[in-house]
Amino acid sequence: MTTARNIFARALTLAAMVIVVMLFMRLFTSDGEMTSAQKESPSTSMAKTWSGEINYAPAYLALTPYAKRQEKGHSSKFDPLDEYWGLPRSDGVENVSAYCGACHSLQIVMQQRQTHEGWDYLLTWMVKKQGMAELTPDTRDEILDYLTREFGHE
């Protein structure tokens, strides 16, 4: 009898552990199945599209007050001396500067190269997971269009 109870107790414990694992899977995925967007983190996606170029000029300029900034023709669009930090001036620049620049450097935005879908995923991720302010549909479309146009895949 004791052996039967031990076997039953172990089976019950195993079943409970399986249920707990399944519940955790449900918590961390929308329907228990991972989508392709969930399988690849934003940082992995960004790393795949990074050009490999590191621009040290902004740090040098910040530390060397007598140095002059480079004029047109420099490789990075990032410019700490510019009103919009070097963002290209076109429809949506104000919203990108306000919403994206509220939480992180605009240099992070400018070094990315994403498809429309990639930028859409990142905007959703920023709002849902990173605490970015909820965007109106018009503002979201304007930001998404700007990012795709100015910082899409070349």
Automatic annotation (TrEMBL):
List all membrane-crossing ranges: 7-28
- UniProt name for this protein: Cytochrome c domain-containing protein
Q: Which SUPFAM superfamilies match?
A: Cytochrome c (SSF46626)
Entries under Gene3D superfamilies matching the protein: Cytochrome c-like domain (1.10.760.10)
Which GO-annotated molecular functions does the record name?
electron transfer activity; heme binding
Chain coiled-coil ranges: none
This protein's species is Hyphococcus flavus
- Membrane recorded as keyword: yes
The UniProt record lists the keyword Secreted: no
Alphabetically sorted, this entry's keywords are: Membrane, Transmembrane, Transmembrane helix
